[in-house]
Amino acid sequence: MASHIVGYPRMGPKRELKFALESFWDAKSSAQDLEKVAADLRTSIWKQMAGAGIKYIPSNTFSYYDQVLDTTAMLGAVPPRYGWNGGEIGFDVYFSMARGNASVPAMEMTKWFDTNYHFIVPELGPDVNFSYASHKAVTEYKEAKALGVDTVPVLVGPVSYLLLSKPAKGVEKTFSLLSLLGKILPVYKEVISELKAAGASWIQFDEPTIVMDLDSHKLQAFTDAYSELESTLSGLNVLIETYFADIPAEAFKTLTSLKGVTAYGFDLVRGTKTLELIKSEFPKGKYLFAGVVDGRNIWANNLAASLSTLHELEGIAGKDKLVVSTSCSLLHTAVDLVNETKLDKEIKSWLAFAAQKVVEVNALAKAVAGEKDEAFFSANAAAQASRKSSPRVTNEAVQKAAAALKGSDHRRATNVSARLDAQQKKLNLPILPTTTIGSFPQTIELRRVRREYKAKKISEEDYVTAMKEEINKVVKLQEELDIDVLVHGEPERNDMVEYFGEQLSGFAFTVNGWVQSYGSRCVKPPIIYGDVSRPNPMTVFWSSAAQSMTSRPMKGMLTGPVTILNWSFVRNDQPRFETCYQIALAIKDEVEDLEKAGINVIQIDEAALREGLPLRKSEQAFYLDWAVHSFRITNCGVQDTTQIHTHMCYSNFNDIIHSIINMDADVITIENSRSDEKLLSVFREGVKYGAGIGPGVYDIHSPRIPSTEEIADRINKMLAVLEKNILWVNPDCGLKTRKYSEVKPALNNMVAAAKLLRTQL
Ligand code: GLN
Ligand code: ZN
């Protein structure tokens, strides 16, 4: 009985790669330094998996930035503006595509399916000259081999690569991305041939798009692609890995009929229908990679339950063709529980991070083979039982209050246009009001103060003084810049979810439970293990202090329930919506306390609402219904004159625009500039939006400073589709990752652009 891991986190147990990348980008270390850190990480991961007994160990799942960008490099599909002149793609061109450079913005970035991982979207047009321009997959395979580890090289599959791409500028309407299949396959063939020559006996293609609701034309592309590759692939065992949802029945048929393919990997954690398809239709003689260990959560596997599933599958695929695997790449979970020295012991016994999941996979494989590690299994069973019965998990009052919300409606009594009128009387804002999304740069000094306070090295008093000074600095800066609606800058927050989680009951925290979000950026999702409640106000102190420093409106700043849910590791012992309703009730209390404290504008960030959208269409309406309901619960109790803002880090919401309107916020600010104003097309197509809206006017993910003209130009584009009296002017997202040297001139130009246009309207 064999074991397999779909992919592994790259960042390292203590974010070693992050620090190496950032130091290289800041020119504080050399390319060789960076390469050394990366090679050490890869070595330790391969050795760890080999040591744990994993048979099919992946390679090429490491990346300096993103695996889709790696594929773009492999195919030589560099957009012309990055000035690549052929040859092997180096750090220069690679990181310019990822992050932009002094003269060119970065490529678009978007969320990887329904995760919080972001990939760099390939831009493809009819004129791309594909060529084999990055040998990374082969180099990594050889590197592992030299260490004595024979790996399964992993490639983003050709069809998923194209389906995740976007058409280049100018050909958006007319171009079929799949028409490029014939042009990219020759490069894939070169890579496959080199891997074979280097000694690979297996190859894995990640084709997660196949779980989406694809039409027959797109499904046909899979058939075409793998038929075309068949002869090159001959002699190799070929695994097509799918994940993140139940696979549709049609797609399952297509997948299991692909030529030249010998193995299929399925996510058996999300959804239950794939298992049924496997039971009734799995083809004879093929390998079944059964993803029973959850790659997207941190809970210890229920080994007894998995084992019984595996026994069933054994009867279908046969003992020698069943492989125990993870549900998806472990990229989406934390790295190693060993480094969690501060976690409560009982809670810790309920958890498994990537390193522990590797051990679980192997233990399951051995158990199926009749070599069950009884001690390991019984410790696991004891932990499962303790989690079920632990009193710290249950709070009956919360359960009751949340259950009462189901099936009812909550919304503000007055409609949005009447509310906006009442708010304008109070706030008296100019046309095209300017604001920011919340955070200001988090300086090293600021992080030091927070860290020292947490470690009890400085007193509460000193901490409060330092934070207030920082807030005052940010307030004064915004006044100087002449921004209309201010923020306090969020200096007291390490992270927009963790900050709230730390003050809510039912949450636990890790020290090193980092998960890659994009590039070098990682998040440390809290763990929701129990019923959620709010013992005390969480933000009122800081928001009131900030409001007292200015006569301009100060936005109260909260994270919404859906985002807290989507950016946490969520308990898997009750439905997600139940947990979400519990959080909504806690945030509702906070909103009402802010209002009582005299805060007239309250922003409830729902940055992650879109990313929780189930991938399968059949499940989306239900999710949107409870997610939007949860948001409305938070603010249904405020007065008309209190202006509720929300913010989303996602522009691709054409398909959910009606749900967004149904959130009934007074103002929404949305990421926009990195997606080429895709969002505006919704309004161009005639959707009426009556509330205030601020599509981001510049990209905060890049250090580049936009000019006044450029911003004015963007605003003008927005004015062409949105009425001037609902338009707000703001950056794409919070500024915490930027430097003041970037933020000051950028905001200055933003305000100048708004003022310029006010004179013209
Ligand atoms: N208010 C948060 C900030 O500005 C929002 C961040 C986000 O949307 N990701 O940092
Ligand atoms: Zn954002």
Characterize this entry briefly:
With 761 residues, the chain is α/β, with parallel strands linked by helices. It folds into two domains: 296 residues, TIM Barrel, CATH 3.20.20; 268 residues, TIM Barrel (Alpha-Beta Barrel), CATH 3.20.20.
Which SSEs are present, and which pair or pack?
Blueprint: E1 2-3, H1 16-25, H2 31-52, E2 58-59, H3 67-74, H4 91-99, E3 109-111, E4 118-120, E5 123-124, H5 136-146, E6 152-156, H6 158-163, E7 166-167, H7 181-197, E8 202-206, H8 216-233, E9 237-241, H9 249-256, E10 263-267, H10 273-281, E11 287-293, H11 303-317, E12 322-326, H12 345-348, H13 354-368, H14 374-389, H15 396-403, H16 416-427, H17 444-454, H18 460-481, H19 498-501, E13 505-508, E14 515-518, E15 521-523, E16 527-533, H20 540-547, E17 555-559, H21 561-566, H22 576-596, E18 601-605, H23 620-635, E19 643-648, H24 657-662, E20 667-670, H25 680-684, E21 692-695, H26 708-719, H27 740-760
Parallel strand pairs: 1-12, 2-6, 5-7, 6-8, 8-9, 9-10, 10-11, 11-12, 17-18, 18-19, 19-20, 20-21
Antiparallel strand pairs: 3-4, 13-16, 14-15
Helix pairs in contact: 1-2, 7-8, 8-9, 11-13, 15-22, 17-18, 22-23, 26-27
Bound molecules: glutamine and zinc ion.
